[in-house]
Amino acid sequence: MLSLSFTPLVPPLMLAAVGALAVAAGLAAVLTRGLAGLVRTLALACLVGALANPSLVREEREPVKDIVAVVVDRSTSQTLGPRAAQTTAAVEELQTRLGAMEREIEARFATVTDNAGGGDGTRLFSALADLLADVPSERIAGAILVTDGVVHDIPASTALLGFNAPLHALVTGREDERDRRIALLEAPRFGLVGKDQTIRLMVDERGGTGTATLTVRRDGQLLRTLSVATGRPFALPITIDHGGPNVVELEVDGLDGELTSANNRAVLTIEGIREKLRVLLISGEPHAGERTWRNLLKSDANVDLVHFTILRPPEKQDGTPINELSLIAFPTRELFQQKISEFDLIIFDRYANQSILPNVYYDNIARYVREGGALLVAAGPEFATAGSIARTALGPVLPAAPDGRVLEMPYKAAVTDTGNRHPVTRALPGSETSPPSWGEWLRLVGAHVDAGSVLMSGAEDRPLLVLLREGEGRVGMLLSDHAWLWARGYRNGGPHLDLLRRLAHWLMKEPALEEEALRASARGGEIVIERQTMADAPEPVVVTSPDGSTREVTLTPGAPGLFNAVMSADQLGLYRLTSGGLTAFVNVGPENPRELTDVFSDTERLRPLAEATRGSVRRIASGPADAVDLPRLNLVSSGSRFAGGDWIGLRASGSAVVRGVSVVPLGYGFLGLALLLGIVLAVWLVEGRRRGLNEPDATR
């Protein structure tokens, strides 16, 4: 390829000034001297040309391939229905057709998943920009998107694309798709225990019947089933049953032939907050450990404590009526009949049956426990006497009965094998050594355990701490009144706060202290599974993915009673885990993934941008078998259209790379300038001679 190049010998401004003077002088010479003036003009032109220093440049060019970017959408919505198979078939066909054009075209492929956008939908254009980041815009022949049209980063204008070439979208899916989903409109994050929280939701559908059946579960237990109208928001009240996470599961029945059932289920966690933990503490004969319980419960600002102490034991009789001995009248009827259900925990601390409570009130307490209440008995020597509360109507709900012995000897409380697995006593500070590093207790009430689990043992390996589930409620029994020795630091003390707080919160059904529990949490692209159990080995965990597929995960032992596993999460959305009748949910990615919010394939979102680049958007599925029918690929050198009824075009740029350059100067620098001046001088001499010959002789 030949071209003319100039390398001026003087600055451009000077060259321009000289050129302007030459033009003016040339015009004046032509007008005044005719042909001779024309010679002068040519001489001046040669002078200016010499100063411009012209050269002939010859370039050796090698044509280069144009670049075509193909971005393949492999997001969650692309797994619905036949879309995955259509995408695979389309990509294979594109690879074949672009491969046949490899002399003119270089094809670059990129695959996009949900994780590429951090879970924030499908981001094809970010991947397209990365794919073409090192390519000059003039070499880009076009871009092809294989997608369902559900794209969340579409540029607002063609200027943001970064190239001037056609954009084509090959859309998977069908026009007659149908689906049903749950849309959460308002989902509370917190709620007071025992109160209702309202969830606002709507069942949305396309191609449905107008009504749907909604199933509501809380913590895996069925609450209700109701029929709802689709497309209409409605309110759903949910009672917060306990403190901590209350997992509410909403599930709607599916449609025949719908795209996915993954969005037919929604799970939300409402954190239960107790307005106040109401605790009733009844102390019998005053003793050194009474203040330990009071200090423990009063130190928690969330505890509303009602405390009564029996100031006179029954053996001290002086004729004074009991109601006149009370500092505050003991409202037995109000506490144990009218308002007993309002308490979260009842504690009997060294309490003996002193005929203060009628037997019917003990019946009320037993019923309170069976209906979901919590009872803790901190026993002292009175538990082994005829006045033991185990001999009242409360006895059937207690886990242990006295054997009549009271052991007065120093001993170190020990955590049993069962206790090592139980969250209440597992890893108590000081229990990691043998014997434990905490101080001794000096008294133990003998008892035989009829039911429940022995978590700690004392002197002569006898039961010390026993827990029992009774009906819907829970009962704990501490067979010693010497926990205060740990609080006072006797012989280095012990973890009395850890033990007593865990015990009280287990009785009040704190989820973190459940002895049988299944938990799951998302960590990046992984799911961390934890199984708490009292069994030697738990059942495997069955994991149901958002697309409905299942897999079985085997757990490995960790700490006593704890089993763990980590599994990869290859999909965004809600996972359901089950093991031994327990259920847990974990959401990977956003709580309401955009990929499952709008699942219908769409040809209209990309159309404005594609048509602005003179490209096209079209579906590739044809026929009932969902066969893929791709348009022809053509290279178009010029024109206003890059798409037709059965073809799509790619822009041929004709780009090339310069491999070599040769330069032939048309002048010889200052030597050429000197020769030119010689020629100009010769012109002037010739012209002067002619002028002399033409003038008349003055002497004649």
Automatic annotation (TrEMBL):
This is Glutamine amidotransferase domain-containing protein. The keyword Acetylation does not apply. Keywords: Membrane, Transmembrane, Transmembrane helix. The chain crosses the membrane at residues 12-31, 666-686. InterPro entries: Class_I_gatase-like.
